Amino acid sequence: MKGTYILLLKLEKSVTLKHGKKTSQLKPGYYAYVGSAMGGFSKRIPRYFLGPQKKHWHIDHLLDHAKIAGLVMFHGKRLEEKIAGVLSSYFEGIEGFGASDLDVKTCLFRVDPVELFSLLGGFRENRDTRRPQKHRGKQDQGG
């Protein structure tokens, strides 16, 4: 399955991060990184959790300092520029991070997680709200 994803990252302490020809000072807090996996989520996403054998993308260097706090995937279309464009209207961006092949200034934003997930509701496409959701695990049987 291919598409676009957002990694929610938590940075515990300040870090000076070199990415490409730029250097950025990142403050502690939450960051959202917007990326695409047009070759498939199964090829891209595990490297973030397991660690890459070779650092290739800007995000690989940030993950040396940050913890993954969440992941949102949008299957199908490449929405990376669209999502980054919307996030840039609401959150502070780290200029030049992860956007070298795109028509946006950045793919990394310092975010408030509650505001981020509120905004993301507008990107959920092709959902059928009439279909009941399957629940996994033990359900509350209390009365």
Commentary on this structure:
This is GIY-YIG domain-containing protein. Residues 18-112 form the GIY-YIG domain. Pfam families: DUF123. This protein is of the alpha+beta class and 143 residues long. It contains 4 helices and 7 strands. The protein has helices spanning 41-50, 58-62, 80-90, 113-120; strands at residues 3-11, 15-19, 22-26, 29-37, 66-75, 92-93, 108-111. A 5-stranded antiparallel sheet has the order 5-1-4-7-6. Strands 2-3 form a two-stranded antiparallel sheet. The protein is globular and about 35 Å long.
Give a count of the beta strands, DSSP E runs of length 2 or more. 7
Domain count: the total is 1
Order of helices and strands, N to C? EEEEHHEHEEH
Strand arrangement, largest sheet?
Answer: 5-1-4-7-6
**What is the gyration radius calculated from CA atoms?**
16 Å
Which bin fits the share of residues in helices? Answer: 10-25%
Uncertain ranges: 125-143
Q: Would you tell me the structural class of the helices and strands?
A: alpha+beta
Helical segment count: 4
**Average pLDDT for all residues:** 79
Shape: globular
InterPro entries: DUF123, GIY-YIG_endonuc
Protein name: GIY-YIG domain-containing protein
Organism: Thermotoga neapolitana (strain ATCC 49049 / DSM 4359 / NBRC 107923 / NS-E)
Helix and strand topology:
Elements: E1 3-11, E2 15-19, E3 22-26, E4 29-37, H1 41-50, H2 58-62, E5 66-75, H3 80-90, E6 92-93, E7 108-111, H4 113-120
Antiparallel strand pairs: 1-4, 1-5, 2-3, 4-7, 6-7
Quick overview of this protein structure:
This is GIY-YIG domain-containing protein. Pfam families: DUF123. By secondary structure, the protein is α+β, with helices and mostly antiparallel strands.
